[in-house]
Specification:
Blueprint (H helix, E strand, L loop, with lengths): L1 E3 L1 H9 L7 H5 L16 E5 L2 E4 H27 L3 H27 L10 H12 L4 H28 L3 H22 L6 H9 L6 H4 L11 E3 L12 H5 L15
Parallel strand pairs: 1-4
Antiparallel strand pairs: 2-3
């Protein structure tokens, strides 16, 4: 695995190497091709932890992708934020996304899911907006509103997966995501800088962008997976995936990939 430093991740992101779109997080139907309606509930694998649907698989990818952009943005907030609330929220975001990413990286090989290392040009432009903001009130307000918007939208997605999935590993990830995202929403709102009208209107609006901006490139099987390093004193409680998956002895169970 490749461990990503703060500077390296920031450079990678701003440079445009990431390509998972913000719109795909806000509008899960845009993640991949034909992942809504009946397609989302289509079982693509029968595993020992329960059936895996397209919606389940896409959710795991979405959680991974959320960390790939929100983690370096949160690190930016630690150094560029001037409001104490923004710095506090940034610490929560770094901590929470690192913990979620660990869970993703544990369950992905068990469920035969290839995780992305990239995000879309649309999201890169979004991060570039925060990079271009002058350090001060403008950055603090944009940071708080943008992340409140995306976490608010994704919170609904996680809750829906939590209540519908029949896969124990995906359910554990969704449960963790519910707690982490709610924590992020609360700490962002506590800054007092969120433009809630703007955040909610953007959540409700459909993006008008070409498919190339909205569809993430698929992960490459066998590619080294970037690691979102947790802070020195993490506070997020990781999910005990080894217990849930039955791999506490250190031996990884082999998934029954079943249908494709």
């Amino acid at each position: 695995m490749v461990r990503v430093s703060r500077n390296a991740m920031g450079t990678l992101f701003v440079g445009g190497a990431l390509s998972m779109t913000l719109a795909a997080l806000v509008y899960p139907s845009l993640l991949g091709v034909d992942t809504v309606s009946n397609a989302a509930s289509r079982v693509i694998a029968d595993t020992q932890w329960g059936p895996l649907t397209e919606g389940d698989r896409d959710f795991v990818v979405q959680v991974r992708a959320a960390g790939l952009w929100a983690y370096p943005v949160a690190q930016m907030g630690l150094t560029k934020g001037t409001d104490k609330g923004v710095v506090a929220a940034s610490k929560h975001l770094v901590d929470g996304h690192a913990a979620l990413d660990l869970t993703c990286r544990k369950i992905a090989p068990l469920l035969n899911i290839t995780l992305p290392n990239q995000a879309s040009p649309q999201q890169t432009r979004f991060v570039s907006q925060l990079t271009a903001d002058t350090k001060g009130e403008q950055f603090d307000r944009d940071f708080s509103t943008i992340l409140r918007q995306t976490d608010g939208s994704f919170f609904g997605t996680a809750a829906a997966i939590r209540t519908t999935t029949k896969n124990a590993l995906v359910r554990a990830l969704a449960d963790q995501a519910d707690h982490v995202l709610l924590d992020h929403i609360v700490t962002l709102e506590q800054t007092g800088l969120v433009d809630i009208e703007q955040a909610l209107s953007r959540q409700a609006a459909s993006p008008d962008l070409p498919a190339s901006d909205l569809t993430p490139p698929p992960g490459i099987p066998g590619q080294q997976t970037a690691v979102l390093t947790p802070p020195p004193n993490p506070t997020s409680t990781p999910v005990d995936i080894d217990r849930i998956a039955g791999t506490e002895d250190g031996v990884t169970a082999s998934p029954n990939t079943g249908k494709k």
